[in-house]
């Protein structure tokens, strides 16, 4: 079976090579390039995409990240006909997967994929028999997200404590705050109660290992953090290392 890895899949040279294969069906899974009309018209039957969201919600890149970021109760996968839009074609199948409070992007992707593998032979069989029944996407509830920016991972201490906990849980070691010129990446977080009157971002408590920081409506207890060089330590050790004290901002 030939394998091609084109940098620019829409170039005429690659399209000519694909045309020589005389394909019946084109399947895209986790492919981030936008395929244009000349490629989409190549297969005799259809061009199909496997997209990890319940379309029309979360069209575009990184749908599982944004689903967890926004605290959705359900995620899943949609198999849809590819058109010239972005994840906007008619729907063939959908699989719903319940999100969990402790989900990371990786753990939710794993459950979605394990629930969706059986759709590939089903798709091939039903395309061969000519019995697929595409349904137009509803436009109400449509949303689109693009690439994850650095600012999307910077912690906003003015956000609700549960939202910050969820962001850190979804991408352990990726969400960060900057203090004393040093980026601190948080590996874990738990919501906790704190005394009234604390300012978001204020260090409420520093223990031997644990520490507590104020958010908009409560506190967050941290245990492990890492630095940009990859070094991992406890939150308490990090505060001592940077000269941070209770009552100061992080």
Summarize the structure.
The chain is α+β, with helices and mostly antiparallel strands and 250 residues long.
By CATH reckoning, the class of the largest domain would read: Alpha Beta
Helix content: 10-25%
* CATH architecture annotation of the largest domain: 3-Layer(aba) Sandwich
Oligomer: single chain
- Tertiary shape: elongated
Poorly predicted spans: none
Which structural class do you get from the secondary structure elements?
A: alpha+beta
Count the strands?
14
- Total helix count? 7
| CATH homologous superfamily label of the largest domain | Formyl transferase, N-terminal domain
Average pLDDT across residues?
Answer: 95
Whole-number total of structural domains = 2
Task: List its salient traits.
2 domains, 250 residues, Methionyl-tRNA Fmet Formyltransferase, Chain A, domain 2, 24% helix, 4-stranded mixed β-sheet, 4-stranded antiparallel β-sheet, alpha+beta, Rossmann fold, 24% strand
